[in-house]
Amino acid sequence: MTSATSRVSLSPAAVLVAGLLSLSVAMGIGRFAFTPMLPLMLAEGQLDIATAGWVAAANYVGYLLGAMTASRLKWSATRLCAAALLMTVVLTAAMALPVPAWVWAAMRLLAGACSAWAFVGTSVWCLGALARLQRPAWGSSMYAGVGLGIAAAGMYCLVGASLGAAAPSLWMQLAVFATLLCLPVWLMLRRLDAPLPAAASLPEATAAPAGLRGLAICYGVFGFGYILPATFLPVLARSVVEDPRLFGLAWPVFGTMAAVSALVAGVLLRRATRLQVWAVSNVLMGVGVLLPSLWLAGWSIALSALLVGGTFMIVTLAGVQEIRARATGDPTRLVARMTSAFAVGQIAGPVASSLLLHVPTLREQGLDLALQAGALALFLAAAWLWWEDKARSRH
């Protein structure tokens, strides 16, 4: 049987499931497992909350570096993804080692880079395979894997914490869990070892489209606003209730909403303009970011997880689709600029909270002030996006 025949005989559903699992490991464990693990590491005295912000920021720096270097590596998409997932497993297990915080930060930086490489590689091989199998519309469903991975990692940590497992043990268990999820992906990648077809030849975008700077700033604000609750929601929940069976629900709820929102985003974007959807999502996300800083209670944590988790994938899709629609040629570099702005914003979030927490007079309110700043920025960006939409509709 020829390689081409083998690829044609692939099941589109199997390809989609492999893509979902790949993103679940790369993002839910490689990138975001630190969030549900953080309350346990704090409780065991391995970190304090100020240092945790720097460790979290290292992961986001790594993601930026990974996104910037993925296209420069000479590996195929399948090989890049396979290697990145393997490194993700190893780095997850290494988090169980009793090392200084700066070593954890270095490992989280490498894990962030691996997450970006796996994300880029998966987007190429999975979307390409689905297109060859005449199921291109299934591609948007693949991104639900991000939320599913977040929810799965969160639930695993919730169950483990409720059973009294220590943080090092849970890191090792997450590595084993990630390995099991990767097995079907690695098998699929072996069947997709032939080079992907060349991308359609498009002229490179020679000039930045109108409004690019404003869109990039809004996308960076999105990164700054969402990453604070995405990092600290379980910690805030733990300050309200000690029972891990309750405070640990914040992150699985966040991930579940992200997965659902990725599936419904396409419907919303067909019924309103991309900028309108983006603006309204910003307002809802801003409310979710603001709530825990004003009322620290179980209901506010739950509502924050629903609002932020239910909008961040919608904003992602709306922002990327908007800049792609405005591009007059190959949109790759423009999308990269948007992604870079997002990465800078999500790096700034934990750094800002850590700086505030290190100020003696603001130590008690540092995280609240950072959340309020993130919410205000999201509201201002929503106003600009709504104005921009009205301005474009008049021309």
Automatic annotation (TrEMBL):
Record keywords: Ligase included? Answer: no
User: What keywords does the record list, in alphabetical order?
Assistant: Membrane, Transmembrane, Transmembrane helix
**Chain ranges passing through the membrane:** 50-68, 80-103, 109-131, 143-164, 170-189, 210-229, 249-268, 275-295, 301-320, 341-357, 369-387
Q: Which domain of life is it from?
A: Bacteria
Q: Does the record's keyword annotation contain Transmembrane helix? A: yes
Per the UniProt record, one Pfam family is MFS_4
> Which segment of the chain is annotated as a signal peptide?
none
Cellular component (GO) terms are: plasma membrane
What the entry lists under InterPro entries is as follows:
MFS_4 (IPR010645), MFS_trans_sf (IPR036259)
Query: Mind telling me which SUPFAM superfamilies this protein's record contains?
Result: MFS general substrate transporter
Protein name, UniProt field? YbfB/YjiJ family MFS transporter
Task: Give the source species.
Answer: Caenimonas koreensis DSM 17982
